[in-house]
TrEMBL record:
GO MF, one example: ATPase-coupled transmembrane transporter activity
Domain called Solute-binding protein family 3/N-terminal: residue spans: 45-259
Source organism: Micrococcus flavus
Subcellular location: Periplasm
Name of the protein in question: Putative aliphatic sulfonates-binding protein
Superkingdom as given in the UniProt entry: Bacteria
Protein task: Part of a binding-protein-dependent transport system for aliphatic sulfonates. Putative binding protein.
Family note: Belongs to the bacterial solute-binding protein SsuA/TauA family.
Keyword Transport belongs to the record: yes
InterPro entries on file: ABC_SsuA_sub-bd, Solute-binding_3/MltF_N, SsuA/THI5
GO cellular component annotations of the record: membrane; periplasmic space
Amino acid sequence: MRTLRPALPLTALLAASALALTACAGEDAPSAAGSSAGTAAASQTLSIDFATYNPLSLVIKDQGWLEEELSDDGVTVEWVQSAGSNKANEALRSGAIDVGSTAGSAALLNRANGAPIKTIVVANQPEWSALLTGPDSDITSIEQLEGRSVAATKGTDPYFFLIQALEGAGVEPSSVTVQNLQHADGRAALENGSVDAWAGLDPIMAAAEANGARFVHRDPDLNSYSVVNATEDFLTESPETAQVVADTYERARRWAVENPEETARILAEVAGLEESVATQVIAERTNLDISPVPGKDQRRVLSAIGPIFVDTGDVPDQEQVDEALETLFDPTFAEKAESK
């Protein structure tokens, strides 16, 4: 578990070493350490992720707002990059991070499988997932994916987008070979012809589109929301810091709404994109004009996705999914942030 972990400063460690050395010299040796180790102020660390699929996390990191807000409290900010919702979920489960960015669907899956996490902020409403083929592919419809291979990252929105799209078109998901590849690897597999199609994720998807990839199917309603989650231990032990995180995300959301060009520039720089591609992601596929409070809108979307977890064998039964959905959201932090 890694939540606001106390860490002895260097002076305390040196003092402790001196104490050990004097003890070795004999029982009557004076204590060089004195009481400095006991009186030294303990520092703390907030471990939080950033991800190209969560532009607000990039803005916060770029602007240094968390460091600015937490420095007086002796809290150090540790940034960890997440390559996908599945990776953020792994880090949250293991306690490697306190706060992580995922799709709403991935957050629900994580909690349904026993991870003690809560969704505390809604970052945006994206159209970040779609199905793509290569520029020379003969595939023009979902129905033509039957018997073909599709790259997707299991446990993430693009994977659940794929399953929903197949079922909506009357195609049995079992008739499609899913290559479980991380998002960037899925793009590479599409471009080198290793798979017939790819369930993509922005901004990698936008870059692939700019490079000639074609959409087979788009449907904003099959995308879940971009959310920010925290471990229950972190929320219980450090609620003040959790509130700072929520406040800073709301600050970033408002800033991004007012500064879309600068937001796109930051995304382009971190993701290695052309600014025109990043601008497309921010301007056309990222709805930031929403409430940050998790609630009925997210519940509605997730209630439709939840049964897929059972169908695909990712969760043993629907009861676990329903219980997870009932307990996933903690809106109190975002409510306070929104009211400021």
